[in-house]
Each structure stands twice: as C-alpha cells, then as structure tokens.
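Second attempt. The first submission of Putative glycosyltransferase had a stray character pasted in from the spreadsheet, which I only caught after the job came back as garbage. Lesson logged: always re-copy from the clean sequence file. Corrected sequence (439 aa) follows.
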Amino acid sequence: MVTAEAGRSHIVVVLYGSRGDIQPGVCLALELLERGHRVSAAAPPNLVEFARTLGVGEVYPIGTDTHTAWSSDEAADSRSRSPIARICYALKTVRDGFAAFDRSLTGLFVGDDAPLRDADLIVAAPLCQDRCLAVAEKLRIPLVVLRFGPMSENGVLGAVPGLTDSWSPEWKRRSWRLADRVTWLATGWNEASFRRRLGVPRVFGPLPKRLSALGVRQIQAYDPAIVPGVAEEWGAVKPVVGFFDLAPEHRAALGEWGGDRAELVSWLDTGEPPVFVSFGSMPIDDPDHLIALFSGAATELGCRVLFTLGERRGVDPLNPGVYYAGAMDHSGILPRCRAAVHHGGAGTTAAGLRAGLPTMICSVTADQPFWASRIAALGVGYGTRLRGLTGAIVRDGLGVVLSPEAAAAARRLSDQLVAAEKAVAAAAATVEEVLVAAS
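This time the job returned cleanly.
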C-alpha cells in the first residue's frame, strides 16, 4: 500500500533498452523531481551516467550493457551468417539480458537490504512491464506503464502495418488479440519463472489483457496527431499525451555537438540546409556502404548531407557537400536541416517531425516498421527497410522527402504536435493521480 503523501512519494522509473528507450523515462523522472517527489531510476549500465548527467541523481544499474550486446564482434559475425545464426544469437542475447535484468530487479526491490524496497509507485518502460507488474504486486504498490507507440488492442490500427490497414475495426482488434496470444505463448514461460522467483501468484494469458483488467494506467508517449482516433478510443486509462523531449537546459548538460561545433556551424552557414542521416544506436556492419549510397544519391539530387554515422569527422575532403559528425542534440541540429533519414526510433521520429522535417525511415526492428508506415500514411515521408537497401531505393526515398508536397505536409503536422513540456507534464500528472488514488 502507498503510505507516503502524494506530494512527496518515492517513485521508481525502471528503464531498459537503447538510449531511445531510456530518454523518455528520464524526461518523466526529471519532471517528477521538479514536482518535489523522490525519484529513483534503474537503467542499463551503459546509460546510468547519461541519466545522472541529466540530473537524475539516484540511478541504479540494471541488467547488461545494452549497446555492447548488439555491437560486439560476436554480434557482427552472427549478422553476416545465415538467418538461423542471426536468430540463435538474438535469442541467446535476449535470454542472457533478461536473466541479468531479473537478478538486478530482484536485488533492487526485494529483501531487507534492497535499496528500492520503500517505493510507493513504479513506472515501467515497455521492455520492463511484465517484470515490474510482478514487483508491484509483491510490494503491493501501483504500477504505471510507459508506451512509445500504440502497441495494444485498438480498432484504428492493426497489429501488422500494411497488412491490416484495410481491415475493419473489429478485425484490427482481433489482430492484436492474436499477436498478444502469440507473444504470450513464446515468452510467457519467462514471466512465469520470474514470478516464481518473487513468490507472487501464477498468471494466465497475455500481459495487455491483464493490465487492462487491473486498470493499470498506460501512458502513451507519442502524439495523437500521428494516430488519429486512438486517443478517443482509449480514453483516460491509456492517455495519449504526446512525444517527450528534454528541456533545453538538460540538453545543454549533454554537450552533444558530434565534434567541432564551430566547424559544423560554419559548414551549415555556407550552404543550403542538408539532409540529416543517422541510424542512432542501431548496429551497422558497413557504415561506409550506407554513406556511399546516400552521398551518391544526394549528389545526383543536388543536396548536401550531414551524417552522424561511422567514425569519420568533419567535411569530406572529396565532397564539400558532405559533413560527418558524431551523436548530437537533435533538437539543436534538426531545425537547421531540410529532411531526415533514420531508423525510425520513436524519439528520433518525434524530433524530426517536431522540427517539421519530411522523413525517410529505414527500419530495422521493434516498433520501427510501424513508424515507417505512419510517416508514409501521413504524407510526410517514405518508409522502407534498412536490410536490402539499394541506390535506387535511396534515390526514390530522397525524392519523396525532398518534394515540396512532403515539406508542406511535414510543416502542417509539426504545427499540430503537442509541445514536449506539455506532454511530459500530462504524464507526470497521470502518475500523481495514480498515487492519490492509491493513498
């Protein structure tokens, strides 16, 4: 039971995955800190310092290094072999990662010496929902879930982008129920094992159905304009609040300019706005090949390119219309660009759309194909897969995002998006409502 006053509660935000999975949770943690709560966070070891640098002082490592797991030599070798080898490596990595995650989570919350045993509420990111539900039951405290895409039952969008687009609302709902059942059959044993470890009752059936039955609030951290109709269908139980982003002062703390800031600003000032090309934390086996594809197509189309890809830095000595940088602050650089090309992570997609940029998404995994399908459906870009990318596909995609029609549509959509500070504030208010109801 929650015993603390809602105005000074101990809220724990549990995060797992890549930086794109972590940053929205950090945004919410910072807002809750501003509101006077005690906030702890759990994050992969490689992203603990990221959260601390932004101002979340109480951060605990959980699970394994999520970057090394997918960018190691072993991972690269598996991707260069047969599909079976890739699947086997992925299964082993996921299994080992969640075994470490389970050990860490138990140590943080359960037992007399557990540092987070006095939590009043848990906020769980998408990859942590089933485990955090079990922990919340163990501690008899409420749970709030964060979602970065509309990945649960609804009658607006089906479970398989493209295939289910023309289905009726009822059949779209059925597609989600089928997808949830398949996921449960494939992974339910893993959740059952963790629940036995904690000593909480056994459960039956898919997690989304159980969350709904329990009335767990599921904050949808993406914009209602991207998925019109979903917010109205779900209502207050699954509030669609808007995309999160860091406040400028928190962004400044990261100091992300990807290299020589003065040189980059000078390059931006001396020509037309470039196309921004980045694939975030996605493992890229041959960045030089991707660079050649995009720089070649850009040269044909007469536009400049800013890459945050690979190890090169500075102006290309053979092509002054190409600049190479490291990871950088999207909110600072994207408004100075003409279009964006990326992997389709929810955070990168949001940053590009908020900057009013037509977008080409070359998806890799998870929810990325969904975002690729949405930007195409909304008329603000072009969606494809990264695997099998060719020069012809790149030229077609850039042709779409560089068109006046896509640029105008992207500007219109940008004007409709919820301001990031309002989205985060709405999410924090939801958390506080749950605290008050449970106290």
